[in-house]
Amino acid sequence: MEIKEKLPLVFGVPDASFFKTFKEKKVFVAELRPSLDGMNVVSKEFIKIGVVPVVICDNMMAFCMQRGLVTAVHIFSRNSDNNKGVCQTGSLIAALCARVHNIPVYMHVSHSDLSEDPDLLKIGKESVTVKGIRTYAPLLEDVPLTLVEMG
Amino acid sequence: MKESILFWPVHIKGKALYILDETRIPQKVAYLKVNDYKGAIRAILDMKTRAFGQFLTVCYTFILELNKAKGKTKEEQMNILGTVAEAFNKSRPTFPFEEVTSMILGFAKKVYNSPNFADDLIKTIDGFLEKGIRLQRYQRAQEASKLLKDGDAVLTHCHVSGEMSLIGEFCRDAGKRIKFFATETRPYFQGARLTAWELKEEGFDVTLIPDNAVAKLMSEKMVDCVIVGSDRSAKNGDFANKIGTYQIALLARHFKIPFYVLTQPSSKLESGDDIPIEIRDENEILAFAGRRLAPKGVFAYYPGFDVVGHGLVTKHIAINGN
Questions:
Q1: Residue B305 neighbours by CB distance under 10 Å
Q2: How far is A49 from chain B (nearest CA, A)?
Q3: What is the DSSP code (8-state) at residue B130?
Q4: Could you give the CA distance from residue B28 to residue B22 in angstroms, rounded to a whole number?
Q5: Nearest-CA residue of chain A relative to B187?
């Protein structure tokens, strides 16, 4: 599909409170490899509240920002201190690229379940490459609060 | 020097082209037999071949059609070449098909007065590929290898048509041990299916990562430099490559990591703003191997490429050494 309008971008798995207060009609949802929780879990929740989810791959965030298609970025921390939030891996990409493009980043607290230890060599049940290739797919990363809108 | 099969993925034998079907790798190494330009274009549209494979497909298809047109008049042969060029130019928007077909038609004009027009043109194209392009790709890989130090970890994205393993081979020859990180490169998984497989096959230390782990790696100082390829370049040094490259370039700048691009200069386009970006079918994200991955009611947006501004590039490593 072609995208003409500007949309917010959600990277991560929000909890129920986020969906309750969400006001937009359409949203970019990052797919969240390797679990595809974005494409599945997050998108389903948006559909339930009447919001149209437009999935993008995790490597398409900066392109959408560069094209002026993103109004705001929403990421989700499992816990935080005064300096950083611990978010799903890829949130730091979303936040850093948003800063370059002057797009506000909002960090929300979420304790939603994340799919633990999904296999990077598969998508769904299908193998994408041969067995035996070493993988590194960290679940969480730190996002400095300096990248995030405060208050 | 050992070459990966992905380094030169298209071959011609008589009146048939054999195109390495990259969508079947690594499960199967199989070549698609193509008998005419329409079949070659179908292979490109179905992404059976891509990047450098597209370039070879165009060049060899002209040879294929010339082989089939022997016995026809020069005028008829030129008409066929014109038809082939026009069909390729309309096939996919981001790759510079017009630049490649114009070059071949330029070769044709130069040898048009020869009594052996078709044979001379075939020899010219073949010489250009084997003595020109192959050699220049070796030189480019060698130059890239010189930028790497013993113990360096290189992050790469998508697949550079066999050139990353050649860079590794040059490093190996120089006694340098290099580690590679390959992004999986959604949605077509060229990184998982081609780059990681190829580097592992060639005995290199390679780790596959999801596209979303790039900043994590860089923030933990696990990456010493980035090397990517390019599908199209502009005069000012901007270039287009597989979607996700721009994001990596921004991150490399943030984390002060050198960002190198293997490129081929072009004088046709002024800047990256002139490069058209192909928007592909959303089902290529929402399904895999014919099975739907997403729930009903989910849409997707799939830009196939992005453009990296020249200011984000530490060094262009160009095919002609410029």
A1: 27
A2: 12
A3: I
A4: 9
A5: A57
B170-192 pLDDT tens trace: 999 999 999 999 999 999 999 99
A56 touches chain B (CB under 8 A): yes
Task: Indicate the pairing of strand A7-10 with strand A70-80.
Answer: parallel
Residues in chain B, how many? 322
> A116 is written with which tokens?
């633990």
Is there a contact between A129 and B193 if contact means CB atoms under 8 Å apart?
Answer: yes
Q: Are B189 and B36 in contact (CB under 8 A)?
A: no
The residue type of A94 is A
**Structural domain of residue A24, as residue ranges?**
7-147
Residue A49 domain flag: yes
Which domains, ranges and CATH numbers included, belong to chain B? Answer: 10-135 (1.20.120.420), 141-318 (3.40.50.10470)
Instruction: List the alpha helices (DSSP H) in chain B.
Output: 37-45, 52-68, 74-89, 97-110, 117-127, 134-146, 163-173, 190, 196-201, 214-219, 245-254, 283-286
Q: In what order do the strands lie in the sheet with B10-13?
A: B10-13, B16-20, B31-34
Query: Among A55, A62, A66, whose Cβ lies nearest the Cβ of B299?
Result: A55
One-letter amino acid identity for B239? Answer: F
Is A31 in CB contact (< 8 Å) with chain B?
yes
Q: What is the three-class DSSP state of B273?
A: helix
Non-local (6+) Cβ contacts of A95 within 8 A are A73, A75, A105, A143, A144, A147, A148
Structural domain includes residue A96: yes
Q: Give the pLDDT means over successive 10-residue stretches in chain A (151 positions).
A: 94 97 97 97 98 98 98 95 95 98 97 86 93 96 95 54
A14 Cα to chain B: minimum distance (Å)? 17
Contact predicate A93/A142, CB 8 Å: no
Tell me, what CATH number does A33's domain have?
A: 3.40.50.10470
Q: How many domains does chain A have?
A: 1
Whether residue A1 is contained in a domain is answered as: no
| R_g (Cα) of chain B, nearest Å | 20
Residue at A78 is within a domain? yes
Amino acid at A86: V
Phi, psi of A122 (to 5 degrees): -130, 155
Q: What is d(CA B160, CA B97) in angstroms, rounded to the nearest whole number? A: 18
Could you report the per-residue pLDDT of B124-173, keeping only the tens digit for each?
999 999 989 999 999 999 999 999 999 999 999 999 999 999 999 999 99
The CA distance from A23 to A19, in Å, is 9
